[in-house]
Amino acid sequence: MPAAIPTKPGSATLPFFGVLPKLVNIEGKTLEGPGEGNLCFSQPWPGIMRSIWCDHERFVTNYFSAYPGNYFTGDGARRDDDGYYWITGRTDDLMNVSGHLLSTSEIESALALHPNVVEAAVVSAPHPIKGHFPYAFVVLSNDKRLTEELVKEIKCVVRDKIGAIAIPDVIQQANGLPKTRSGKITRRILRKIAEGDKQADLGDISTLVDETIIEHLWENRLKEIRTTG
Questions:
Q1: Under a CB-based contact definition with an 8 Å cutoff, are residues 150 and 116 in contact?
Q2: Torsion, Cα of 85, 63, 187, 149 (10° steps)
Q3: Within 13 Å of residue 126, how many CA atoms lie on the same side as its CB?
Q4: Residues 42-97: pLDDT tens digits?
Q5: Which of 29, 106, 121, 124 is an S-S bond match for 132, by CB 3.0 to 4.6 Å?
Q6: Which residue intervals of 102-211 are DSSP H helices?
């Protein structure tokens, strides 16, 4: 409520009346006092989403299965000593690489600093030792090709900006990224491509601006496998 309570820079301030947020760690334990974790709600309030049209099972799976008994928003949050909350970002934008939590958006921003990278998207892919690793898709400028030298340059930018732990294990060239008409990158498709499961269900792709991009991404991935395999 504007002017009802003092504000703090970047904070969503205090919960509205009847709204009971809580922070939960990755093991599902409720965090008390100041801390940072997954943002959940323990009770409903008037107007909260109640289902997904014709797919209630998906609603339950997406929002209540991660932390049973709690509505999981999919966001991370931080709470200070005064009970003020800050939203830290989507939890699916984070990956655990050798015990380090890395932000995919931060890596994307670093990749985009290279003058030949027009656009970049990073997803998490499974790794037998590290747990996960950053898999990057880059759209290059002026008909550039992704040479070994260019890959080294791009990785150096990430190292200098964030650190060696954030360097993508794989950088794949993309003609474009799968986007909806609203301009949102459909990351679930990129994750399936990074995982290499071509038989995987990609979900609804009818909202994509250009569905042919998916096949181009698979072709580039397969070329890379044949080249490095």
A1: yes
A2: 60
A3: 5
A4: 999 988 889 989 889 988 988 998 889 999 998 888 999 999 999 887 777 778 88
A5: 124
A6: 104-111, 148-161, 187-195
3-class secondary structure, 87: strand
3-state class percentages of the chain: helix first, strand second, coil last, to nearest 5:
30, 30, 45
Which residue's entry shows tokens 């070994």?
148
Contact of 175 with 216, CB cutoff 8 Å: yes
Separation between Cα atoms, residue 223 and residue 216, nearest integer Å: 11
Class of domain 21-91: mainly beta
Q: Where are the domains of the chain?
A: 21-91, 98-228
Structure tokens at 109: 């921003």
Cα–Cα distance measured from residue 118 to residue 111, given in angstroms and rounded to the nearest whole number = 9
User: 98-228 belongs to which CATH class?
Assistant: alpha beta
Question: C-alpha distances in angstroms, 153 versus 111, 166, 174?
Answer: 10, 14, 17
Residue of 37, 32, 20, 29 lying closest to 71 (CA atoms): 20
Q: What is the dihedral of CA 153, 191, 181, 213, to 10 degrees?
A: 70
- Count CB atoms within 10 A of the CB of residue 216: 15
How far apart CA 85 and CA 63 sit, in angstroms, is 20
| Residue 77 tokens, joined | 């949050």
Which residues contact residue 52 at a Cβ distance below 8 angstroms, ignoring those fewer than 6 apart? 58, 59, 62
Three-state secondary-structure class, residue 95: strand
Q: Model pTM?
A: 0.66
